[in-house]
Amino acid sequence: MEDLEETFFEEFDNYSYALEYYTPESELEEKTHLGAAHWVSLVLYCIAFVLGIPGNATVIWFTGFKWKKTVTTLWFLNLAVADFIFVLFLPLYISYVAMNFHWPFGIWLCKANSFIAQLNMFASVFFLTVISLDRYIHLIHPVMSHRHRTLKNSLVVIIFVWLLASLIGGPALYFRDTLEFNNHTLCFNNFHEHDPDLTKMRHHVLTWVKFIVGYLFPLLTMSVCYLCLIFKVKKRSILISSRHFWTILAVVVAFLICWTPYHLFSIWELTIHHNSYFHEVLQAGIPLSTGLAFLNSCLNPILYVLISKKFQVCFQASVAEILKHTLWEVSCSGTVSEQLRNSETKNLCLLETAQ
Question: In angstroms, rounded to a whole number, what is the distance separating the alpha carbons of residues 39 and 34?
């Protein structure tokens, strides 16, 4: 049984997917750069969680409950929902890396955690692609946009995006597995059948599908949209909100910066299975690139605050509203206080409806 596990682990080590590079403690002491890479990646995961939870919750609150429902707010609402769901599961992954890739949470959470990560990646890039196409059509083809750009049609697109992201991320639910090895439980993609060629083929197919569908095609689509938009805006002197344009462009650029190293290392992993030097590079590089990719989940709300004037104004107004109600509750009591609070709440609701 032990020989079988050793053989199995050797195959897993050659065909590991993403960052499941368990290294024994004795080797970690000798390879300090690997330990440092894992700890740096752990810091990135923690930053993504600490900033991602309140940041995406704030965006969901504004776009889902405070602002008027429009096609644009629906896009950004679903983008924030995808990121929020992902960061909720991050503590599991943080614990996994902190315990030197020991997964004590069981096989179903192993599958669910990986599926959520894949769902977040694909849903985010698909919504960014939809936002880019929507901007282009809205500004360059206003007649078509006025005819088809409705809340009903946008809901259809949103459902399609979530279904497509779930379908492409679905293999994680099938292949993800756990393995007991050397007092560690590993959570990894179990491509290993008795046929090693089939194992390698599955690894290649899933990696290239993820790269082409989840990165290359959206990148080309967004690039063409923005290049055409910039060219035609200058040529036709079309009016465009500079802050809105730069907000969307910044979100797209942030996605590319965060996810490009991840995809490059994933492709690199396909071609290098037997070179010990490059294997060490992958052991250090893949956790770091994955941490950078995860960091994207908390960047979008920060970009909204830094660039979007509307978001800045609404955020400041909401904070002021909370502080004002808190002061009323502290300084006032009794029937008079209750009447004043009811009156003010009614006025605020009327203002929200008017907007």
Answer: 9
